[in-house]
Amino acid sequence: MMPEHSLAAIEAAVQSRRAFCASFCAVIAAAALPGQAQTPPLAEKAPDPQPVKLTELTRAEMTPGKVVDYRKLGAFYLAADDRGIFALTAICTHRGCLVLSEAPTGFGCPCHDSAYNLQGEVTEGPAKLPLRHLEVKALEPGGLLQVDTATTVPPETRI
Ligand code: FES
Fold first, then answer.
1. Residue 123 Cα, ligand 1 centroid: separation in angstroms?
2. Which protein residue has the closest C-alpha to ligand 1 atom 1?
């Protein structure tokens, strides 16, 4: 036979456990209710303190149709078409995933299947906005190309 105080301790422990389970289940249920769940805000990244990225390519090396992946350097692609050289952000305008190159035709987003042509225009949603064009400069005539990921330029801009 158990002593009286042991039974009280066990009952208290059971009550405490039930209270915990009730609270935990209420939180889970609230999160699971349609329209009640809070969508976490999109991660807001601090601006890149060094947005100007130096590539190892010169203008002469960028021939029409060429797309170079700089997602690791600064989340962008350097590309060239018949009109010249340009840079596009690799950040999908739908929810911010990094798009993948499907050169020479364009880019595809692995998250929700948005597609963009080589110039960054949306060819298939859910994205509605084109990819941002970024400023490209040559350090000197014939020199290395650099891209400023913080500066957006009109989509027709080429160098
Ligand atoms: S984040 Fe690219 S399609 Fe949704």
1. 13
2. 95
Length of the chain: 159
Of 157, 81, 89, 156, give the one whose Cα is nearest residue 127. Answer: 89
| pLDDT one-digit tens code per residue, 17-61 | 555 444 444 444 444 444 444 444 455 677 788 999 999 999 999
Which pair of structure tokens corresponds to residue 133? Answer: 């064009």
Indicate the top mutation candidate among 89, 93, 95, 123 to test ligand 1's pocket, ranked by most ligand atoms within 8 A of CB: 95
The pTM for the full model equals 0.71
